[in-house]
Amino acid sequence: MYDIEGCYPYTRGGVSTWAHQFISSSPDTEFVLWTILANHDMEGKYVYDIPGNVVEIREVFLEDAYLGGKKFFHKWKKKDYGDLIHLLGRMLDEKEDQWEEIISRVHNSGYGVYEIASSQDFLDYAMEFAADRDIRMALSDTFYGLRSILIPILHLLSQEIPAADIYHATAAGYGGILVSLAGVITGHPTIITEHGIYPREREEELMQAEWIPDSLRDVWIQFFYNLSRCAYDTCSRVTSLFRGAQARQIMIGCDKDKTVVVPNGIQLDRFTGIPARKPDGIINIGAFVRFAPIKDLKTLIRAYYALSLRVPNTHLYIMGGTDEPEYETECREIIKQLGLDSVSIEGHVNTIEYLERMDFTMLTSISEGQPLAVLESLAAGRPCVTTNVGCCKELLEEAGDEFGTAGIVKNPMDAEGLADAMEVLCLDRDKCVTYGRNGMARVFKYYTHELMMSRYFDIYKEVL
């Protein structure tokens, strides 16, 4: 059974692609998708053709926690909620480690989520919390801030658990809570696969978020670290994509003996027929990326503007959907203000078809794991310019194998440095071609879909 937080099968992107290929290439295994969505707007709106071995899709909507309990499985009970609220509040304690106790007691309480969120006991807890932590803000802001943190967790822990032999989540956040719940209550094995380090990515976003009061920013950050610790402590195995990510999991608190490195893999037969691009006077640069702040497309646009002033006859293609329409609008406005007629926003595209047109690709994220977009670009013989996030430097510059450099890595948010790197690949075609060949050889040896799948099914057999 797969637990997926807010991506597959509703949106396209690296993790969604990974999940779809994983399920599609396992025809002898049945899957239940246990998905978490913010609200009912996306209910049943799948952007993928659901594979035949998906036997159920069970959707959980966080907004239901505030709708008066109409869709809850438990019965209303008028009792003193204080003990339960304080138990749940331990999710915010930096030193908490009794996750199984919290999960089992909350799940078996039978209390109504909306009633707890609106109770005098919750208000009392908010006043106590503010006093203990010397939070200097309006009590109403503290009350509603704590509600927004804790009530979704209470709602998730109240869910009925689908039957499965193994529970496998694609993140250690809210999805990790559902898998932890399943493991604690059923006793069946559970696996967390992290494509990025969940709390680190949330911390990056929270540090920039304007909607969080400064007095609660550290509380939110600690909460997301605790979600990961809960998942790590209660799960059978925790996988990462590369050694650096594994080290961060251990640093956050994961037992080293639970951790396993399983690199991403791609289906090579999709890329083997892509020909080398013949020079035609235009240098095409591609970014296969969705519009989201963590992808930092604003820096990409500014870097390309700097390049366009130095190197004529270039064209930038941005290819992917959007997580945040407002962010896409801001990016479009920057393109318009800079007068960049040579930037095309293509939306969702056929990756293979567009890779044929590219000379090299870009990734300017401020956080990544092991991006499929980079692996796919290298498999097509196209070198990459990336920021130094996740394992990009390991893939492109410091692999430690016989294949050599496959691209250029710069610091995040360094528009000038990224422009310099693009200029190198634009002006030195021989280097661009050589880097592409090096990357292709590396992917073909170490990052195949077949190798990845065999590693995961070895883990399945082991935990069973």
Poorly predicted parts: 69-78
What proportion of the residues form beta strands (DSSP E)?
A: 5-15%
Strand order of the largest sheet: 3-2-1-4-5-6-7
Largest sheet: 7 strands, parallel
Number of strands: 13
Please identify the structural class as seen in this structure.
Answer: alpha/beta
List the helices and strands and how they pair.
Elements lengths: L1 E4 L8 H11 L6 E7 L16 E8 L20 H8 L9 H9 L5 H5 L2 H13 L6 H19 L9 E3 L4 H13 L3 E4 L4 H11 L5 H21 L2 E4 L2 H10 L6 E3 L21 E6 L8 H14 L3 E6 L5 H13 L5 E3 L5 H5 L4 E4 L8 H8 L4 E4 L4 H5 L10 E4 L4 H13 L1 H18 L2 H15 L1
Characterize the structure shown.
The structure is a single chain. This protein starts with a strand and ends with a helix. By secondary structure, it is an alpha/beta fold. It has 18 helices and 13 strands.
Write a brief caption for the model.
With 464 residues, the protein is an alpha/beta fold.
Describe this protein with a few key phrases.
Rossmann fold, six-stranded parallel β-sheet, 13 strands, seven-stranded parallel β-sheet, 464 residues, alpha/beta, 2 domains
